[in-house]
Design a protein that fits this description.
This protein has 17 helices and no strands. It is mainly alpha-helical. Mean pLDDT is 80; it is low at 1-8 and 187-206.
Amino acid sequence: MVKLSQETKKTSLLELALLFLRLGTTAFGGPAAHIALMEDEVVRRRGWMTHQEFLDLLGATNLIPGPNSTEMAIHIGHRRAGWKGLCVAGTSFILPAVLIVTVVAWAYVRYGSLPRVTGILYGIKPVIIAIVLQALWSLVKTSIKTKFLAAIAVGALILTFFGTHELLILLGAGVLVGSWHLVRHSGRRGLTLSLSTTHLAIFLSSGAASTFGLWWLFLFFLKVGAVLYGSGYVLLAFIRADLVERWHWLTESQLLDAIVVGQVTPGPVFTTATFVGYVLGGPKGALVATVGIFLPAFFFVAVSGPLVPRIRRSPTAGAFLDGVNAGALALMIVVTFQLGRAALIDLPTIALALLSAIILFCFRLNSVWLIIGGAVVGWFVYGH
C-alpha cells in the first residue's frame, strides 16, 4: 500500500517544512546520524519512498561534493514535491542550525574572552580531538578498501605534509584511481569527466586575496561547497589551509572554537562556515559564508537527481570517489595532528582527550554528553 502512494501522492510544502525544521533543530551526531533519522521518518514512518529508493539517493549524495545529510534533505524534497520541495526541504533543514550558530557566534564575539567561557572551550577542545579521531577511524575502515587505495592515501599524506594544495590532493587522488579503473576496463568517458572536474576545481581554487572582504569570503566558501568530498571534517582542512595558513584571517584558536560550535549545535557540520563568517564579518559575513557553502549542494542535487540510476551504476564514478575519499583521509590526518597540537597543551587536556577517546571507542557514548562533560571539567579546572 505504501508503494502505491509513493508514485500517486505528493507531499505538501508545509509538511516538508515542518519535518525538516524539526530534524534541523534536533539532529545531533553528524551526517550518519542525520541520515538515519531521515530514513526512519521518510521510509518507515511516512512511507514516502522505499528503502531501495532511499539508498539510491544516498548513493547519489556520495558521488557529488557537499554536505551529505543536507543533500539527502534536498533530494527527498525534490522527490516528494518537485523544485519547490527541493528548496523548502533543504532550507528548512539548514535554517535552525544557522540561526543557532549565529546566536552562538554573537555571544562568542561579545563574551569569548571571559575566563569562564575560555575555561569551557579549554575543556571542550580536547574532547573534539577525540571525536575527530573516532570519525577518522570510521573513515579509514570504510574508505581504504584495497592496497592501491592505501598507497594513494599514504602518498596524499606525504604531499599534504609538504604543503601541496588540498584541492590538488583530493582531485589528483580521484583522477589517479579513476584512471587506473579506466585503464583496467579500457574506457575513457569517465577520465574526461574527471579531468574536466579537476580543471573546474583548480579554477575555483585560484585568485584569492589576503585582504579580507565579503566577496572573497563568499568565493572561498562557494569553492569549498563545490569541491569538498568526504567527511564534513575535511572542511576543517580547507579552512585551516586558506583562512589560517595562507591569508591569516583566523587564528588556530578561532578555528578550534569554530569546530566546537559545529559539534555542540544540531544540523549540518557545514554551519561552521556561518560561525567563521560571523567572526570575520558580523551578520553579513555569516550570511555570505552560509549561502556560499550551501548553494552548490542545491545545484548538484538539481542536476544529479534525474541521473541517480545511472550515477549509482557507474563504476568510473565509484572509482573516482574512492580515490577522493583516500585523499580526504590524508587531509583529515594532517588537520587532526595540527589541531591536536593547539588543543592538547598540558596534562589535564591530554588526559581529557585520552579519556574521551576510550569512552567513544569502547562504550559508543553519544558525543554530545562528552562535550557537555568536557565543558564542565574546563569550567572548574580553568575557570576557577
